[in-house]
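quick one: nicotinamide-adenine-dinucleotide bound model?
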Amino acid sequence: MEVKQHERLHRDDQNLCKLAISELEDIYADLGLSIEELDLLDMPRRSFTVHFPVKMDSGKMKMFVGHRVQYNDARGPTKGGIRFHPELTLGHVMDLAFLMSLKCAVVNIPFGGAKGGVAVDPKEIKRNELEQVTRGYIHAIADYIGPFKDIPAPDVYTDEKIMVWILDEYERIKGEHAPAVVTGKPIELGGSRARSYSTSLGGIYILEEALKKTDMDKFEVSIAIQGFGNVGENAARILHERGYKVIAVSDSKGGIMNREGLDIPAVMKHKAKTGSVVDFAGATNITNEELLTCECDILVPAALSDQLTKDNAADVKAKIVLELANAPTTKEADDIFFDRKIMLIPDVLANAGGVVVSYFEWSQNLTNDYWEESRVLERLKKSMITAFNDVYSICREDNCRMRRSAYKLALKRILQAERLRGNL
Ligand code: NAD
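yep, here:
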């Protein structure tokens, strides 16, 4: 079971990179980039690998390998997650760091992109060993990270507890408090309010803005959501609270549907009790495949990559696809949706709410002024709506798909920052 999860997460990212890179090749040609611009985008500013010893619980020493890539810092300090994964490679971290640079630029936050981590399976080692691995990695890279250099965050298999170890180790080394060195902390140690559901809410702000561009009525639309984990469950809960009709949800065991609208708080209780949404009393069981092609206005993939493919894209009935998952749509399906005039809101925009609230966390740490939840939400809404409209206007001007518009916007912003610095 655990091994499967690893494979899934790893594959998600590989797919994300593949999709982005094939799209980017076309965009580079479209934008008519010069050789200098291509060279500048092609290489990370700094990438490094560290090896560090950890005393294991057995008393024996073991060497670990970690990487960090700071891809582009023209727009601000680099920012990106730290993952613990047994197959982590420098090349893969590099691709992910580049994608983070694009994501930060799409939502116009003053960060460049980074990524990093340690080649370790956190499920194979004890809690104390995990702490020592985290501290050993930070010890090895401490001179290269910092509130104004490079700011780590959680990623695959790293969480709030690991962010606290990162914070503590960094502060011990520097001999001073520096909460802005890492985001994704608990509120008691400088974390931001609303972070836990910021990805879902950010996506919903975007959806509401997208609906204004259509003739659909907010309270008439029907919504189907694939995935009922952190992102999918929060999305269903918030949509329900805002008066939307969520007609179908699913998890890895299958899905449920009620055309009149699901009672989401009751579904959440059912899932907490049984471990799945399946067999919920107020609905009919459906398969995940049925959910993706069901009669609905809005489809929200919020589980895995590669769900909407050439095999099912022609059968999708939704008029809007909101990609809360990373890379749920393949290139072929993307083409089919574009031809069918289905509005696809790409992951790089739709699920960027999490990184926006990370930026707010960093700002609060630097000013020591902690915001009420309402302020976080108000600022998140403004950022997401602005980003949507920035992307949408390129889409209208160039008559191209939204994914391409988002990448174009990000590349233009990064290159403009490089130009202003005199690097181009
Ligand atoms: P999660 O592990 O909390 O939840 C994943 C959900 O998908 C679970 O409900 C699981 O049962 C379900 N699932 C697994 N296999 C499935 C299948 N075959 N069919 C249908 N459902 C299936 O993960 P999450 O944090 O909610 O992330 C979901 C997606 O969103 C991932 O693609 C992730 O990369 C992306 N994402 C998450 C965040 C975040 O803040 N958590 C931010 C950006 C992007």
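Residues 1-11 have pLDDT under 50 and may be disordered.
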